[in-house]
């Protein structure tokens, strides 16, 4: 759960009413004699992200236009838009016709000449007047978000020379001449291959963003749950998965022939929502750091393939701390598959209050003892939902109690693992807020 910031709860109407208590001469005098303090106050006010909703956009729009020197919009650095498909709340205006959200948003964004970060939930062509030096853009729209399908290229093209980080729900890179050479971090979700959910054609993406160093993908964004280990996911289609892998491997082989001009030569970090995503990417190049947020019993066979594709030195895998998942640990991959690993992290999601620590230690030993991994990290944390539903408060408290008991014994468990894994030099075990570190002398 995100921590509320001052701006996330600020009522702009209250701010405006406080200002109106001052007479015009007093307000003018304050502005003339306290410019430096006024500037400092505005910078502090806009330090946190400004989240625009249907309830505050009209008053915020008015707030930006109060006064003429300096322009308040020039202090905006980070804006979160969550209202582009809403209507202005009637409570914001006691009379007259309400302006449209689209007009207000365009007015705010076009006046924000120094905006660096924008989180957007639409892709309307009318936003093309935005001319700020955007460096970070998050856009959430497309079929998965129940919004009209939109092409974010209209938003992106004005910022080809400034964009460094992109987080997009869906993108279509049809014009192969348009490139964004400064983008180093790219996150994609809800990608489509044809009309089927859950596939990715990486070629157009790599051509549009050739210098990506960090790539995050969740091609079929599905909330992880323990039942997926046995049942799989409803969105997984074998035909699409294999077709995407073959297509992407062909692309990477062609890129390897391009020498120094090949895309993603500097790729250092790949994080995927499911092992299927990494399997579909078919990466034919070393990637130092790989993160896999989920896998299932029916897809565990893909893990050796993706390790052979990427040959990582650092691997992070997330699993549920259920007995039937823990039992599979020794079979995740062989010593030959993990020969390149020097760092390995396992993040366990605890969604039930029973965690078999003895089984976890035994099976981790069977997996890790043959490996040449020098730095190990084991993390157990509460997982507070079952599918789309949040666990009851009693259930959450029971999990917290179980983790507290394990945390009390974390030093002992870490020492046991260290003794059983002879090639390891350092081990970190994090349980909730407790942390145990063990170094080999």
Explain how this protein is built:
Helices cover 32% and strands 18% of the residues. The protein has 15 helices and 18 strands. The protein has helices spanning 12-20, 24-33, 35-45, 57-64, 101-111, 153-156, 202-208, 228-231, 238-256, 275-281, 302-310, 323-326, 357-368, 393-408, 410-420, and strands spanning 50-52, 78-81, 117-120, 136-139, 165-168, 185-189, 192-193, 196-197, 214-218, 269-272, 289-292, 314-320, 343-350, 375-382, 385-386, 389-390, 426-431, 434-439. It has 441 residues and is an alpha/beta fold. It has a domain at 313-441. Strand 17 (426-431) and strand 18 (434-439) form a beta hairpin. It comes from Lentinus tigrinus ALCF2SS1-6. This is F-box domain-containing protein.
Overall outline: globular
**Portion of residues in helices?**
25-40%
Q: Kindly report the spatial arrangement of strands forming the biggest sheet.
A: 1-2-3-4-5-6-9-10-11-12-13-14-17-18
What would you report as the Rg, rounded to the nearest angstrom?
A: 26 Å
Protein name: F-box domain-containing protein
Organism: Lentinus tigrinus ALCF2SS1-6
Briefly characterize the structure:
This is F-box domain-containing protein. The protein is an alpha/beta fold and 441 residues long.
């Amino acid at each position: 759960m995100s921590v509320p910031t001052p701006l996330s709860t600020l009522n702009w109407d209250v701010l405006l009413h406080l200002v109106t208590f001052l007479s015009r001469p007093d307000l003018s005098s304050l502005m003339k004699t306290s410019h430096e303090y006024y500037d400092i106050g505005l910078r502090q006010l806009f330090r946190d992200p400004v989240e625009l909703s249907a309830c505050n956009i009209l008053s915020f729009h008015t707030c930006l236009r109060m006064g003429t020197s300096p322009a308040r919009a020039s202090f905006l650095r980070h804006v979160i838009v969550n209202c582009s498909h809403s209507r202005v709340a009637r409570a914001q205006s006691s009379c007259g016709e309400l302006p449209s959200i689209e007009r207000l948003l365009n007015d705010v964004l076009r006046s924000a000449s120094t905006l660096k970060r924008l989180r957007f939930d639409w892709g309307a062509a009318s936003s093309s007047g935005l001319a700020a030096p955007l460096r970070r853009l998050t856009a959430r729209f497309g079929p998965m978000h129940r919004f009209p399908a939109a092409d974010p290229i209209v938003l992106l093209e004005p910022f080809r020379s400034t964009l460094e980080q992109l987080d997009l729900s869906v993108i279509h890179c049809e014009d192969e001449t348009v490139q964004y050479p400064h983008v180093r971090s790219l996150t994609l979700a809800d990608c489509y291959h044809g009309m089927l959910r859950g596939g990715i054609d990486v070629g157009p993406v790599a051509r549009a963003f050739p210098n990506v160093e960090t790539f995050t993908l969740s091609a079929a964004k599905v909330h992880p749950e323990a039942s997926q280990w046995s049942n799989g996911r409803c969105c997984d289609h074998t035909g699409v998965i294999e077709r995407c892998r073959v297509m992407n491997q062909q692309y990477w082989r062609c890129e390897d022939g391009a020498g120094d001009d090949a895309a993603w030569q500097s790729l250092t970090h790949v994080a995927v929502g499911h092992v299927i995503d990494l399997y579909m990417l078919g990466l034919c190049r070393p990637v130092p750091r790989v993160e896999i947020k989920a896998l299932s019993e029916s897809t565990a066979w893909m893990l050796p393939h993706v390790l052979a594709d990427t040959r990582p030195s650092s691997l992070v895998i997330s699993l549920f701390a259920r007995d039937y998942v823990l039992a599979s640990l020794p079979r995740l991959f062989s010593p030959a598959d993990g020969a390149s690993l020097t760092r390995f992290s396992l993040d366990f999601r605890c969604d039930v209050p029973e965690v078999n620590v003895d089984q976890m230690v035994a099976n981790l030993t069977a997996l890790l003892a043959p490996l040449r991994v020098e730095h190990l990290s084991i993390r157990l944390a509460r997982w507070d939902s079952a599918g789309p539903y949040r666990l009851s408060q009693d259930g959450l408290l029971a999990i917290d109690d179980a983790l507290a008991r394990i945390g009390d014994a974390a030093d002992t468990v870490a020492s046991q693992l260290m003794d059983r894994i002879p090639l390891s030099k350092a081990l970190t075990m994090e349980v909730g807020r407790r942390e145990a570190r063990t170094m080999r002398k």
